Amino acid sequence: MLVQLGWILMMVLRLAAYSRYIDIGLRLIGIVLVLWILNKEINPSYKLAWTMLILILPILGVVLYFVFGRSRIAAIMQQHFEQRIEESREYLRDRPQTRQKLEALDPSASNQSRYISDVSRFPVHENTTAEYFQVGDDMFPVLVRELKQAKKYIFIEYFIINDGVMWQTILNILEKKAAEGVDVRLIYDGFGCLTTLPHKYYEELQKKGIKCQVFNPFRPILNIIQNNRDHRKLCIIDGWVGFTGGINLADEYINQKARFGHWKDTAVMLKGEAVWNMTVMFLHMWAVIGRSEESIDYETYFPNRYHEQEFESDGFVQPFCDTPLDEEVVGEDVYLNIINKAKKYVYICTPYLIIDNEMMTALCLAAKSGVDVRIMTPGIPDKKLVFILTQSYYRQLLEAGVKIYEYQPGFLHAKSFVSDDEIGVVGTINLDYRSLYLHFEDGVWIYRNRVIQDIKDDFIQTMEYCRQIEPEFCLNRNIGLRIMQNIFRAFAPLM
Q: What is the mean pLDDT of residues 388-398?
């Protein structure tokens, strides 16, 4: 890819050097491009980053923008997703009694939920229980137990799968279940598994009776579509048991292998009607990747077909997903809603803290308004450059009264929000541009469910293993490092 970029850039530079008129033309294209970008309905941080790059290095900036601009492939994929969403619309409707109950209980929470229903198209549910896992070590045996009990189908969609104790244990179960006639399907991301799985590994799985597809297989061709990855983590069993969270299918996530100290991650297991949202998410992705023209028989996968007893109810649960192919930033907006509506506190776990002006303003305003805003980040990074960039946001947040904690035993990979003992989100969505704008993501919005207290307790207990960051930490940093951080921040949206 670097060779391709170098070749294209060299050719353009030679053309510019060959003719003064070509050079002037490229610079005029750069100016027109900047004006066009400034008038697009995209995040202001993206506008600033592209504008700076094009104005400082006109020829390089123009080339990079045309190479990495919105592609036709992305537009086609979005059309396929819209087609599937429209097809499933009648199966994804809020129950009037559920919506009325939530509205009567808390209009503010209902408005947050309604946004998710209207924009991401996935309804809110009752008749669902949830179990929260503080680390992958706790989730893994429960996941194994539930997989062994599957009777009709198992749908698995993960960003990273890596051979080891975790994957071999799961693979053995999947192979046995497929032999028993269970519909076993697997999606993994082509880039996430680029170095962790053999080339064309899906063929090996298919020989075992496991239906498998690869999302956006990595091809060394310069194109923006390579940026759009499937970062979701879903495991659905018989339509009424569902897992999601930050945990991928690799040994470091269950601390069977040490990479960056102790790996702190979180997940949630749902049981009940809300798992239907996750089932439809998977079916949409499966159909789009496979480019199937056939309509999906959604009724075949209804959870009530495989669960005779009534589901237990505990509050309101709403799984949702976000796509980078439209103009709506659902993940960030869900987070902003929680921050803006908080009355007492907001506790946040994120492995990466690379935020835009909207998120920075919301966090700072909440803290200045008396809300107890706390953010937990890793103490040992998995990506040093991203960690340096994360720390560059500390000073402004600390000055506004936000409390920041770094998890000292290792790498914090959890992605969770909890607020006011009522609302929480657990899922795959990081607080960085890549996760909020470029990846396919999923999360679970939870209101007045027992796990809200579990998420809060986990945060408070984990604080004992953290170092609280003081303002002096930012002021006493090396001047060279601070200059580098400022440069990185200017181009953070493009990284």
A: 94
